[in-house]
Write a structure and sequence with these properties.
single chain; Adenine-n6-DNA-methyltransferase TaqI, Chain A, domain 2; globular; hydrolase
């Protein structure tokens, strides 16, 4: 099937939102506005809508109308560039900021455009056209020139109806998987709280202690532009490498270290690393360094804990995982711009039980068995999630290649595209 393809600007108004300015943080015409943080893959996220001062004349330019599509103009994550959502008038008199681009078309069924842009964004199609280092910018002009299919309006509506029937089933499966993941997270928390109870319920032979008394706490080395190059480039771990009970080595950075400094911050097997800065729920996310990668240091986005001889590193890891899931680290945090910070100073006085070593070994063994079962179930959900994402891309690809018919042949086409 062949549809006419035209630049987006031929069939739509494409406008960048209004730039923020300190002078507009207050005024007598404060209006709600959307920004990139309000756009999610499943729709608009309206729990945290900001306001700023817009004059009546500015509102004539930047007011959102039902049927408008808003797309993320920039993102630090390549896969988020151009992420779209449909505005249906959820908030009266709402505008938009310049982290979003608005597309307004009278020639298209809005949901057809929404799904088309979602298809491009999900498959990374906007990324090669984006610009910037660290932050990827799509740009109004580049989006305005984007080649856009223009089938007849009845055909657009037919495609949307068939497409949304398929997507609704994928959405239901995704919701089921999300609920299953939440149940597994609750199981993990319950397991950790059972193995390591609150301080008021420590067994008699457990010694009440603090993190500082159970081991040595140290913040990593601060990064500096002067160390981006040098004669002694060495690898280091940062917060992006440390997940719960797992160190991700797919993207390990390097910087210059003099010999003494590198030796001071070099990791040894048995060190426990905790995220110093994170979202509040994941603050203090810990992992045990087991020697991989070798000869690596760490930066000040991480805190290192070295256990004393009467504390097993594996037991310390469980204590910190327990505290993260129980929200104990969150209670000690300082939050700046939505990122919570723990700091070595606030970590040190947090309670840390010290059972006899044999008891620690038994707890570690029990935890390994019970948490491994949960991890296997989480792995199954991850596999199902990846399968669902591939099917979603395939459904969209079938729709915008004109191959969705609304009959049993759709399943064959979707499977073919999912495995392509």
């Amino acid at each position: 099937m062949t549809w006419p393809i035209v630049p987006l600007t031929d069939i739509a108004e494409v406008r960048l939102g209004r730039q923020r300015s300190p002078k507009n943080h207050s005024g007598d015409q404060m209006r709600p506005y959307l920004r990139a943080a309000n756009v999610g893959w499943s729709g608009l996220l309206l729990d945290d809508v900001k306001t700023m001062n817009f004059s009546d004349a500015e509102m004539d330019t930047y007011r959102l109308r039902p049927g408008d599509i808003v797309l993320s103009e920039a993102s630090g994550s390549p896969g988020e560039v151009g992420k779209p959502a449909l505005w249906t008038g959820e908030i009266d008199n709402c505008a938009f900021q310049n982290t979003l681009i608005r597309v307004r078309s009278s020639a298209h069924e809005p949901r057809f455009l929404l799904h088309y842009f979602r298809y491009i964004a999900l498959t990374g199609g906007f990324l090669p056209s984006s610009r910037g280092v660290g932050i990827n910018h799509l740009g109004r002009a580049r989006l305005a020139s984007w080649p856009t299919p223009v089938p007849e309006l009845p055909e657009q509506k037919r495609i949307v109806e068939i497409l949304e029937d398929h997507l609704s089933r994928l959405d239901a499966a995704a919701e089921y998987m999300a609920a299953s993941r939440r149940r597994l997270t609750a199981m993990k928390k319950a397991t950790l709280l059972e193995l390591i109870p609150d301080q008021s319920r420590y067994p008699r032979d457990w010694i009440p202690s603090t993190v500082a008394e159970a081991g040595t706490v140290e913040l990593g080395r601060q990064r500096h532009p002067d160390w981006h190059t040098g004669s002694n480039m060495q690898p280091y771990l940062r917060v992006a490498n440390v997940f719960e009970d797992r160190i991700d080595t797919t993207d390990v950075k390097e910087m210059h270290w003099d010999a003494d400094t590198f030796e001071r911050f070099r990791l040894r097997p048995g060190d426990v690393l905790l995220n110093e800065g994170q979202t509040p729920e994941l603050l203090g996310r810990p992992a045990l360094y087991r020697g991989v990668p070798a000869n690596v240091a760490f930066t000040n986005s991480l805190i290192r804990f070295k256990a004393n001889p009467d504390v097993l590193p594996e037991f310390a890891l469980l204590v910190f995982r327990r505290h993260m899931h129980a929200g104990r680290f969150k209670r000690e945090s300082r939050i700046t711009t939505n990122i919570a910070h723990l700091s070595a100073t606030r970590l040190k006085p947090i309670e840390f039980p010290i059972p006899p070593l044999e008891t620690q070994r038994k707890i570690v063994e029990s935890a390994a068995s019970r948490l491994a079962r949960i991890s296997r179930l989480e792995g199954s959900i991850d596999h199902a999630h990846a399968r669902g994402a591939a099917l979603r891309r395939a459904v969209l690809a079938a729709a915008f290649s004109g191959r969705l018919k609304g009959d049993r042949t759709d399943d064959e086409v979707i499977e073919e595209l999912a495995h392509a």
